[in-house]
């Protein structure tokens, strides 16, 4: 653990209409207590951000966008810019594998989104990770190198302190419902990838940036696997997909993070 607050992010993806999102938030408010040791972030759909921002208890949760456009305004029909989100969210997920692989976002597009987020005072949660094919061809390290170095390449060292990186091996991501039965990487594999990520940050921005960078793990996390994943060397938190849509699972993940934090503090 390189940062003393564990960061847990729930990515609701393209699920829940505004009413359902509001109900889930209500349930989470009921279940989850304010914990100074844990920072909780919810990423609902773009449509739900505004109403949820009025409902949310800001002492418990922060909001994140799942995506935004890298130009601040203009003739870009259908897009929402980071500048429009500035007052609504603390974070924005950038470079999620859904965006890279289903919407064709390439390395340069992800870099431009990271820069746009920073320019608009939003902390990007930069997702990186190899596909199953890249894993089999032993290209993981190269993929992480290219994704991390390109995404951060336009930032100053002051900017980079605001970035969070999520290691999300694409082959470990659930479909949204099979997260309890999906293959997840071994702790050694996650630790190796996180080490490689920090090494690339180190090469670009030096030791302080690399040590202080918050690095999350994401991929089929559940309440029962959360603690082991959080105890993995170098992991500062979790990016949770499918399990974040179930208030019992998500609050179970938060409880696991709290228990781990309090156990490590009492050592
Ligand atoms: C994700 O897609 O960011 C994710 C972590 O999903 P899941 O937990 O469902 O694998």
Explain the layout of strands and helices:
Layout lengths: L5 E6 L6 H14 L6 E6 L2 H10 L5 E5 L16 H4 L5 E4 L2 H6 L4 H13 L3 E6 L3 H5 L3 H13 L4 H4 L3 E4 L19 H19 L1 H6 L1 E5 L7 H5 L6 E4 L6 H19 L2
Helix pairs in contact: 1-2, 1-12, 5-7, 7-9
Phosphoenolpyruvate binds next to strand 8.
Strand content: 5-15%
What value does the average pLDDT take?
Answer: 96
Low-confidence stretches: none
Report the strand count: 8
Biggest beta sheet attributes: 8 strands, parallel, barrel
How far apart are the termini?
Answer: 14 Å
Helix content: 40-55%
List each distinct ligand once.
Answer: phosphoenolpyruvate
- SSE class: alpha/beta
**C-alpha geometry:** globular
H/E order of the elements? EHEHEHEHHEHHHEHHEHEH
Using only C-alpha atoms, the radius of gyration works out to: 17 Å
* Strand neighbour order, sheet with most strands: 1-2-3-4-5-6-7-8
Number of H- or I-type helical stretches: 12
Summarize the structure.
The chain has 267 residues and is α/β, with parallel strands linked by helices.
Descriptive overview:
The protein is built from 12 helices and 8 strands. It is of the alpha/beta class and 267 residues long. It has an 8-stranded parallel barrel, surrounded by 5 helices. Helix 1 packs parallel to helix 12 (247-265) and helix 7 (140-152) packs parallel to helix 9 (187-205). The longest helix is centred in the last third of the chain and has 19 residues, at 187-205. The protein is globular. It starts with 5 loop residues before the first strand and ends with a helix. Bound molecules: phosphoenolpyruvate.
């Amino acid at each position: 653990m390189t940062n003393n607050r564990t960061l847990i992010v729930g990515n609701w993806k393209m699920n829940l209409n505004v009413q359902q999102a509001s109900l889930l938030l209500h349930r989470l408010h009921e279940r989850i207590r304010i914990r100074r040791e844990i920072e909780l972030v919810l990423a609902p759909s773009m449509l739900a951000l505004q109403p949820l921002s009025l409902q949310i208890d800001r002492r418990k949760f922060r909001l994140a966008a799942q995506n935004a456009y890298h130009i601040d305004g203009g003739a870009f029909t259908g897009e929402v810019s980071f500048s429009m989100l500035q007052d609504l969210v603390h974070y924005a997920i950038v470079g999620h594998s859904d965006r890279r692989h289903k919407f064709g976002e390439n390395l340069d597009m992800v870099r431009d989104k990271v820069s746009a987020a920073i320019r608009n005072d939003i902390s990007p949660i930069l997702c990186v990770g190899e596909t199953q094919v890249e894993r089999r061809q032993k290209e993981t390290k190269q993929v992480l190198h290219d994704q991390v170095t390109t995404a951060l390449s336009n930032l100053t060292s002051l900017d980079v302190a605001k970035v969070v990186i999520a290691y999300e091996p694409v082959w470990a991501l659930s479909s949204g419902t099979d997260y309890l039965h999906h293959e997840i990487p071994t702790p050694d594999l996650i630790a190796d990838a996180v080490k490689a990520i920090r090494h690339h940050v180190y090469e670009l921005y030096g030791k302080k940036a690399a040590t202080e960078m918050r690095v999350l793990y994401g991929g089929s996390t559940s309440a029962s696997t959360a603690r082991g994943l959080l105890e993995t060397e170098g992991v500062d938190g979790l990016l949770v997909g499918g399990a974040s849509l179930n208030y019992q699972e998500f609050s179970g993940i938060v409880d696991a993070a709290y228990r781990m934090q309090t156990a490590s503090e009492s050592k």
